[in-house]
Amino acid sequence: MELRQLRYFVAVADELHFGRAAARLHMTQPPLTVAVRRLEEELGAQLFERTTRTVSLTAAGRMFRQRIGVVLEDLDDAVADLADVAAGTAGRLRVGFVSSASYSVLPRGLRAFQELRPRVRLEPRSLTSAEQITLLLEGELDVGILRDPLTVPGLRSTLLESEDLVAVLPARDPLAAESTVAPARFHEKEVVLFPFELMPGFVSAVMTWLGEAQAVPRIVQSVIHQETVLGLVAAGVGASILPASVARFHMPGVITRPLLGSPRTELHAVESQRSHPSAHLLVDSLREPR
């Protein structure tokens, strides 16, 4: 049984006339008649009652027309959906992001993209930079929004924004009264920081600035999410260094202050070579002015 035969059957079943069905199919009547007879032989059932004047469906033919019509419609829809997915106008887009992106590029960027591609289902996941790189390389993520990513062959990186790093301090900390915080003064603090293996680029930037004091910081807690860092700072566990956009979070009991020398951090969108066709459109949406 071939798909062509099924479409021939549907045309005859709809027209109940071999001549009109042949015209609808842009073919001559004899091969259409032969094809329908072969289909009946393969199915082992008579689909049409034929006389010299009329063609009508048998009970088996009516049932088969109803059932096969659904199958052909699903097949046509699948072909149309396939074309949409290949063109990037449908399907799903798996997006990873560091928690700090949710205060800056992420909300508006996702909204702007969804307006352009309403049939693409976004699947955002909060992940560290290292986790995103691994998933991008494994083909399990289409776009990653990373903080200070390292260069990785096979991945394309686009700068989204650059911002200052700031000291994040308990509200009662003496440094909160200063206009800027120097590395030497910050070394006096117990520090809450991300694990190096999960955020290597960002932690390297922090350690470079701290290294100007030529001392090793006292890291008392290593945590994954920025919200957790803020909670520990508010509880007085220690101080931290985060992107300046953290001030938008308004955590009670936490004060931010500029760092001497204004070290900066960068947020990048990273794409896999095997990503969804609309991945670059998402990156463009993330880059637009906020």
UniProtKB/TrEMBL annotation:
Domain named HTH lysR-type: residues: 1-58
The species this protein was found in: Pseudoclavibacter terrae
GO molecular function, one term: DNA-binding transcription factor activity
Protein keywords: DNA-binding, Transcription, Transcription regulation
SUPFAM superfamilies: Periplasmic binding protein-like II, Winged helix' DNA-binding domain
InterPro entries linked to this entry: LysR_HTH_N, LysR_subst-bd, WH-like_DNA-bd_sf, WH_DNA-bd_sf
PROSITE patterns associated with the record: HTH_LYSR
The family this protein is said to belong to: Belongs to the LysR transcriptional regulatory family.
Cellular component terms (Gene Ontology): protein-DNA complex
Protein name: LysR family transcriptional regulator
